[in-house]
Design goal:
By secondary structure, the chain is α+β, with helices and mostly antiparallel strands. The protein folds into three domains: about 5-170, 2-Layer Sandwich (Beta-Lactamase), CATH 3.30.450.20; about 205-330; about 335-484, Heat Shock Protein 90 (2-Layer Sandwich), CATH 3.30.565.10. Helices cover about 55% and strands about 20% of the residues. Bound molecules: adenosine-5'-triphosphate and magnesium ion. Adenosine-5'-triphosphate (ATP) binds near residues 389 and 440.
Amino acid sequence: MRVFPETRSISGKLIRMNLLVSGTALVLACVAFFSYDLISFQQSRIRTLAAEARVVGSNSVSALLFNDKEAAQSTLAALSSSPDIMGAAIVTNDGKVFAEYRSSRGGPMRWTPLPPGRRQMNWVSGSQVLLAQQITFQGTTEGTVYISAQLEELGQRARQYLAIAAVILLFCLAAAMMVTAMFRRRVAQPIVALAEMSRAVSRDRDYSLRAPPSRERDEISVLIESFNEMLTQIEQRDVALRHAHDALEERVQERTTELKAANRELEAFSYTVAHDLRGPLDAINGIGFLLQKDYAGSMNAEGREMLENLRRFSAKMAGLIDDLLHLSRAGTTNLERSTVDLSVIAASIADELKTAEPDRNVYFKIAPGAIVLADAGLIRVALENLMRNAWKYTSKLLSARIEFGYKRAGSQIFCFVRDNGAGFNPEFADRLFKPFQRLHTQGEFAGTGVGLATVQRIIARHGGRVWAEGAVDQGATFYFALDS
Ligand SMILES: Nc1ncnc2c1ncn2[C@@H]1O[C@H](COP(=O)(O)OP(=O)(O)OP(=O)(O)O)[C@@H](O)[C@H]1O
Ligand SMILES: [Mg+2]
């Protein structure tokens, strides 16, 4: 199993923190103890040196009084038994060196006069000590003895202490690491387990998981319990949400079924009404035709005009009923798909239009080879509506242009019918496909407003979509996309 970076980091942090704390405490303790020891050692050595200086001083009194340099010299030479004494000198009151001793390692002796009133003094610089002791006889100062020492033992001690401190530090850090490792299991393990579990929850969205409870009663156990409680709440809410969703889905399903049934009933009703109206209307139209043919001569001008209007309106009503029947059929008839050449259909519709109104000057451009898998009857109705619209809405132009084109993209075919006619306000482009919605008045262009609704229904039944682009007086383009 992968170890998360967070997991590593919390254990690592614990170890680092413990090592840092115990290491710092140990170093501080060692520094304090060793400093105290070194300072005490230095002071005790200085005290010994002072005692030696006093002995040398009292032994040199007679040598000074009798100006016996040799005796003074031999008194100083006794200092050779102390290996750390580098040199010594007896200086007279007038500042002259009376006798001098130099160890084999010692250099020339540098001394400083004692300040007035002082009988003894020492100067320390690192491990170098210079000690001055006044020589007095019966209350009179006879000279000063100087001893210079190099406390090498001090350096040696410091080095030893450093080595001891390093070993102690290593042992203590190893011990601290062991203790930390023991505590890490108790402190970090529950947090690591919680982190891994929360990762699994968010990755798998499995809210039934729970973090293992901690044996300790501390903030971590509170955190784990709260987290588990939170998961329980999420789980319960999930279940409630799923139930609500299922119930809603069921209700939507029910309503959809009801709506579909109501819609079917309505469609069947309007189809029956339209279909049943067609028969009597044909009869009225037929009677009107016979009246016009056989009795027009025996009528006055007003009667003939009324008969003419009767025939015109019944023909218009027949057209409207046909449109409604088309719209109704577009939604109900079974689809029988076959390979259909839309270019050929478009060309035949263009011929029909030109034959019906041969005086119009319309240039048709039809791209060949638009082959699709569709219901031949329905797709023809759709294309006919689009081309008839193009024909109708270019009728006010002296010279019009209508184009049928297409483009394939992947498994889809995008077809369009374009004209350079009256166009429409593009803001209302979506309205065009709703039944009885028209953007032009009857005065401008006659129509019922059912054609594009029929087109949309047919294209939708083929699993495609239809949309329009246009601008007032700049023509219109109607697109439809189908799976080819
Ligand atoms: N080629 C076009 N150019 C400009 N406007 C158009 C074009 N085709 C359709 N329209 C607009 O869309 C409206 C709806 O068109 P639709 O074909 O549904 O109805 P219609 O042509 O008015 O009547 P009908 O039901 O007889 O076809 C039209 O009234 C017209 O305003
Ligand atoms: Mg139309």
